[in-house]
Amino acid sequence: MEVKQSSTTAGKPIRCRAAVARTAGEALTIEEVIVAPPKPYEVRIRIICTSLCQSDITFWKLKEPHGIFPRIFGHEAAGIVESVGEGIEEVTEGDIVIPTFLSDCGECVDCISKKSNQCSKYPFEISPWMHRDGTSRFTDLEGETLYHFAYVSSFSEYTVVDISHVTKIDPAMPPNKACLLSCGVSTGVGAAWRAANVEPGSTVVIFGLGAIGLGVAEGARLCGATRIIGVDVNPDKYEIGKKFGITDFVNSTSCANKSVSEVINGMTNGGADYCFECVGLTSLMEEAFACCRKGWGKTVILGLEKPGQQLSLNSLVVLHSGKTLFGTLFGGLKPKSDIPLLVKRYMDKELQLDGFVTHELSLEEINKAFGLLLEGKCIRCVIWMNK
Question: What are the distances in angstroms from CA 214 to CA 100, 102, 269, 337?
Fold first, then answer.
């Protein structure tokens, strides 16, 4: 990656290209936009690479109240600090950084505690604004406000991000791998490593072998799990998953007259030590809990279901089984301390990231990237801003 640079644009608006979503579910348009300079405690970043995540797709499809347009999506990225606002000492012009949807202020009780990664000073919300003042840093050439997404909005050559969402990393990290650590892959690896604390020799079941599910497999492999069972509707995912530690595979559409949980319970002699739901379907969340071992089993919810959906669990089973079920954002990782550790593990050739990148495209090809993900033909599609 590039290193230190002298900014000649600091304090001035920047005109650049961005992929703008004008209407829910319709193709993005490549437009010239205006990106305002950063305000106090904000960083303006020149995006080098961004990758497409399923959450971008989910909210791109949504209409009101959660779908707000026109909007600049994207929240997995790596870039270079172009300029900083007042009050920032953590990064400087030219630093290589990863922006994240989850904040890490380092000051509140949650950020200080080892028990939580959910900042209470700047909590995560589906907001179209910057955290501190509730306004946007984007406008189009007609002066119309363009809304933010997930506090990152990386489908733009430049973006403005609050410092609580910015992590400085080793400049030797390849940007097309670094961007993966902004969300999906980190969420999966972190869920096994931090949230569940998978133990060596354990059995793990993963529902859904997309990027997050494969990230869980990679995290479980690094933690020393000896049996990692993948569950998916696509049989091709077994061969893909083997690269990340998957040892067994269950096609959820080919279980005859049995439920997936019955098949898993039979394979594991009573249930798995850890189950991860990575699709975002309440039915699979219930199945994951059903095949989690009584007494000590943990079920971790990572998939994003539609707003308002309800889980249905038998209260007697919950009481008697001794199982644990919980959800986790960003896999329980604290961005500013844990992302650099993942970077180091990649640089030390422990953490596998290369296999997640199946396509690399230009910004002009972003709608092709959407199509690939919608059709299930990619794991992660990396978009180079200046390819």
Answer: 20, 21, 24, 23
User: Per-residue pLDDT tens for 57-115?
Assistant: 989 998 877 789 999 999 999 999 999 999 999 999 999 999 999 999 999 999 999 99
Q: Facing residues of 160 across strands?
A: 44
CA–CA separation, 300 and 295 (whole Å): 16
Q: What is the pLDDT of residues 193-252, one digit of tens each?
A: 999 999 999 999 999 999 999 999 999 999 999 999 999 999 999 999 999 999 999 999
Q: What mean pLDDT is reported for the chain?
A: 95
Alpha-carbon distance of 149 to 154, in angstroms, equals: 9
The whole-angstrom separation of Cα 234 and Cα 209 is 9
* Rounded-to-integer distance, Cα 353 and Cα 303, Å: 21
Predicted confidence at residue 4, as pLDDT, reads: 45
C-alpha–C-alpha distance, residues 151 and 107, integer Å: 19
3-state SS of the chain?
A: CCCCCCCCCCCCCEEEEEEEECCCCCCCEEEEEEECCCCCCEEEEEEEEEECCHHHHHHHHCCCCCCCCCECCCCEEEEEEEEECCCCCCCCCCCEEEECCCCCCCCCHHHHCCCCCCCCCCCCCCCCCCCCCCCCCEEECCCCEEECCCCCCCCECEEEEEHHHEEECCCCCCHHHHHHHHCHHHHHHHHHHHHCCCCCCCEEEEECCCHHHHHHHHHHHHHCCCEEEEEECCCCHHHHHHCCCCCEEEECCCCCCCCHHHHHHHHCCCCECEEEECCCCHHHHHHHHHCECCCCCEEEECCCCCCCCCCCCCHHHHHHHCCEEEECCHHHCCHHHHHHHHHHHHHCCCCCCHHHEEEEEEHHHHHHHHHHHHCCCCCEEEEECCC
Q: Which residues of 170-194 are buried (b: 16+ CB within 10 A; e: fewer)?
A: ebebbbbbbbbbbbbbbbbbbbbbb
